[in-house]
Fold:
Amino acid sequence: MLAARHLLLTSLSSRRPAAAALLAALACGAAHAASFDCKAAKTPTERAICGSSRLSALDEHLAKDYERAAQALSPAGAAQLKASQRSWLRFASRVCVPRDAKRNGGKPAECLEGEYARRIERLAQVGVRVGPYVFNRVDLYSAARLGKDDGAGDYAGFATDHVAFAQIDAPVTPAATAWNAAQRVDPPAPDTGDDVADRSSDDDDSASDNDTDFVIGCASERFISLSKTSAYFQHGSAHGGYDHEVRNVVFGPGMRKMTPSDVFAPNSS
Structure:
């Protein structure tokens, strides 16, 4: 089975032949084998995969879905997908490490299972044709360790950011290129990797969790409908917030927002 470590070390670009995978499974000598020798497992992710048949199965599932998605995209789209996958791998490892098991509310394997399940759902939206376009999905992540554990948010002890936006893969018209530019979202601020504290303030009330996502509704040569959601939670508050918008864009003449006249006849009610 293809483990997260193997995905990372091969830069997400290749898989071992079936024979090599079988040898790796035999080397592990366990019902839930990985693509590396479990006796030499050192990182938290390696140990979690070697110790969980469920996580190992999710890892294999994700590897197949990633390969399918990459093959459905152009070289430029596949490069965007690789960057997304690397960002997710760093994020999952950061928020699910064993020394933070108490902070993020579960054992490392349980935390990783949740992250794998969410990533598999998101990969299902990559390389999918809607109308005349194949769409890519770009996901970028960040997790900043808080100076203290306030027990709040999706990942206690962390302030997290996730942004996702759609891209038409291999756009061939100026309108499609302009649409792609309009969808892009600034990536979250990178975390420092500091295992002690990414925030020097003793007051973490200013920390927040943010999540931006989207769903493609319908698409034609001259029209795309997309719904965008933004969820946010400020640590220390009683509850979070949620924004939703629908973006209807007409491609010609000139890319613009959809107006009532595009649907209704003049003087209609």
Remarks:
- The helical segments are 4-9, 18-28, 44-50, 53-71, 75-95, 108-123, 174-183.
- Residues 130-262 form a domain with the Heat Shock Protein 90 fold (CATH 3.30.565).
- The chain is about 35% helix and 25% strand.
- The beta strands are 128-130, 133-145, 158-168, 208-220, 223-234, 241-250, 256-257.
